[in-house]
Amino acid sequence: MDGRFFYNVDVNWFVTPESNAFDLEIVELHEIGHLLGLDHSQDENAIMWAYIPIGKAKGLNQDDIQGHKVLYGINN
Asked: Whole-model pTM?
């Protein structure tokens, strides 16, 4: 992996909520999580959950934050 990710031009993207598009920021955060070494989460509210909802926005979840802390040895 060389640190790059790409967007599919055939997908509808949004920055403000739309019912038939993917939130660009969720996809960016999810892919950056992979670049930083995280796998998919079992928590459906986490950015790192394997499925990205259409038409919904969400932010980092405690599971995402804890995953980074464990991965990089950061204590609370």
From this structure: 0.77
